Amino acid sequence: MIEIPYSGTLNITDEGLDFRSIVQANAELSQIQDIDILLERILFMARKVVNADAGSIYVRHTATEEGEADDKLFIKYAQNDTLQKSLPPGQKQLYSQFSVPMDDKSISGYCASTKKMINISDMYNIPDDTPYTFNSSFDKLAGYKTTSSLTFPLVSEERLLGVIQVINRMDKQGSVIPFSNEDELVLTNFAANATSAMQRAYITRAMILRMIKMSELRDPAETGTHVNRVAGYAVEIYDRWAYKKKIPYAERVNFRDILRIGAMLHDVGKVAISDAILKKPGRFTPQEFNIMKGHTLYGASLFSNPMSPIDKIARDITLTHHEDWDGNGYPGWVDLVTHAPIKVDADGKPLGRKGEEIPLAGRIVAIADVFDALSSKRVYKDAWSEEQVLDEMRKLSGTKFDPELVDIFFDILPVIRHTSKLYSEEH
Questions:
Q1: Which helix (H) or strand (E) holds 189?
Q2: Is it the case that residue 64 has pLDDT exceeding 80?
Q3: CATH number for the 2-202 domain, one of 3.30.450.40, 3.30.70.20, 1.20.58.480, 3.40.50.1100?
Q4: What are the residues facing 5 on neighbouring strands?
Q5: Which CATH architecture has domain 219-422?
Q6: What is the mean pLDDT of residues 114-134?
Q7: Cα distance between residue 281 and residue 290, in whole Å
């Protein structure tokens, strides 16, 4: 067992290391802008550069995540290739949600509190004189044996951002072997680049949450947990859709990144709606509802001159997440600048977008937003039961919602439930 103090970036040129893959991994991380998508990729890449079968990534909550203690690590993602292979194709592995105190009782807690890398060759034979122990209950629950592990901190300017633990280094024959000194050097280098990417992504998330906080000051329903759930559901629906459509993996990663950010901004246009309407504790009158519909246009107008893929997808989502599959939604075909109809019906009213006229991102967020709204308490209603919500989602398939995406929603319902717990109001 080896403990190594955390240090900065290293230039790794050893011929025994796949330097090209490390450079490619670092380049990809620098392009990801959403922190949740980034953390998932960081864990995946950390495992792949050292050929680890499994692993977990924990984060220390920051000022952008309000109300959480700053002395605990919270698990964000867990991955396990062996367990994943036992699942049906396309199905995601779920994992337990828990926190770990930043103390010397657990391996990840000790790593966090000391900012030291910990290399353990046999988790079931840790020397008695070490302060930390291995909790084997997760192995028993999953039917998996953790043998070798390498746990390392993610540190930026002396501040701990999180901890990664990679598990069971595999050799070419598929046997578990200990992590080597070279693996330690590779992951030390990788950690330095990962933390830089995390800092950038946290800044992006903070800016988005400030925009959402502006909406929350006007609309009590527009909370950080609500938009995180909607964004989380949207990404999961897209993932399964992209898998079924055989979308290339690189394209999937890029779209997931911007989709999550755009989905969080779906109702940002509500800042332009008066408090008398937003905070009304009952149903809207027809006139009030027509005013409320304007939030789609106000939101889209913020991105009417898109300068980036995020701007474009945010515009699409804010504008079309209330369009209906059958064409009876709003705002329909309307000019973003003048709000004048572009296509009209016999009465001169804007024609609604229908079917695949509605961008994919808008169709996905429509499902995610309605599901969360029905499942949540509002000033004008109590939360519906899950049975009521799911019945309503089925009824709206083919009218309000894209029926193919509704089928996908029900296919991944366990993942949807998992995401809901991950971003619950109490978490």
A1: helix 181-218
A2: no
A3: 3.30.450.40
A4: 116
A5: Orthogonal Bundle (1.10)
A6: 95
A7: 17
